[in-house]
Amino acid sequence: MALFPSRDRRAAEAIAELTYSNPFRERRIELEHAALGADYDGRVPPWNQRGELIDDHPNIVRLVAKGRAIVDAARAALRAGRRGDERERSIYEDLVVFLSYYDWRERFEFDPDDVARRARSSRRRHKLAAEFEAYLASYLGPEVVGDDASIDVIETAAHLLACFYQVNRAFRSIFRCIIGVSRPTARFRAEVWESIFTRDLRRYRTSLYRSMSDIVTLVTGPSGSGKELAARAIGLSRYIPLDRSTGAFDEPGGVDVADSFYPLNLSALSPTLIESELFGHRRGAFTGAIADRAGWFEECPALGTIFLDEIGELDPAIQVKLLRVLQSRTFQRIGESRERRFRGKLVAATNRDLVRAMRDGELREDFYYRLCADMIEAPSLASRVADDPQELETLVRFVAGRLLPGVDGALAAEVADETLRFVRERLGLDYAWPGNVRELEQVVRNVLVRGSYRPVPAATESDEAGSLAAAMRDCSITADALLRRYCAIAYRKLGSLEETGRVLDLDRRTVRGKVGG
Description:
Structural class: alpha/beta
Helix content: 55-70%
Distance between the termini: 74 Å
Number of helices: 24
Strand content: 5-15%
Largest sheet: 5 strands, parallel
């Protein structure tokens, strides 16, 4: 006999599918609608595109209630000896996974800013594994589904809890790091989710959770668009196993998960310093190396994440050394031959067109093809506001609230209103936002301090050349500043460091240093 009555079959299938769906894709809402049917509330906005967590969203509340009713009825049928077919038993197991997440998520809520709460939660977890095993056995034990269909509850429970803890951290970290209501923002969140879990969460749960750290994630997009925030969300969302004996999640190398993200801006360092920071060095390896030093690749724990910003600016010699880490996850400190192993995950970011850089000879092909396994593109602020003007207000109010923490919320709201009024009246709603979200943050600060903001005027080549010529006539510019500005003009016109160096008869690295300066 069938395990699910015909009236519940469609809802059961929809809930089973959404259990493993990307929560930030439109498909998730379609499945909620299919599961709830006439009970779906279309008057409220979809929760996964609002840019905020709504635990009491009416459709989520109704979905959990419906899933519970279907599971309880199916469990009673199983206890009565009605086994159903293999497909129905698989759906039943998926429904149990769905229900158990909502029944247990409060036991491991994650807030990266609330260290005290996480510590209290950790102390309460000593019975977590055993309690969850009993819970899971009540749905999937042999007395319910039979000996042939029952699972190894002890092994499954610890791993399932670890997956729940990861899903909870990823869900909250993505919402916390990527703010907005537009479709480009929703797509951005969905892509970050897939960088953590892949497009198939079921496959991730069964096997891929072991090997995702081997895949490099590359975040591209314009400067100031939130690439580091996406990387941080990924870093905070690593799989952390549950120690069944203690009921505690095995934090990376004893480091709190919120502190296991290690960012490094490569463009701010010389090649020698980059090597030392990443790989470490032996005493005496170079002038100033007065002691042995471990680099970030060595210090990073197995469940930690290293974020390399401006990866497109790396010198080719460093690209070769980093390529070895990407290929074999091994490296050597500067000045020694001992091979060491990188155990964590690597996330990189750039605002450059790496394909063009590769074609121009500035980026090694083998290096590029080791970086492009998992690529995310951060949308520009202009594209987000063009899709949904509400995006601007959402971001301004978020920035104002973060800028004025611990004070009367009315003050943050007042500053946000003043900023929005200034943008509408002085910049215009079609403002291009060349500095993206980073510029928006400065607009809020400028309005708070001075009541206004002066955007950088879009300079033309003739403006730049005329300004430079005037500075030369007045003898008001140093030789270094002259070369720097001339290199910048030539680079923008010629499009590549290689060509700029050839035309100006300068070493490519000299050009890069002047342009970057």
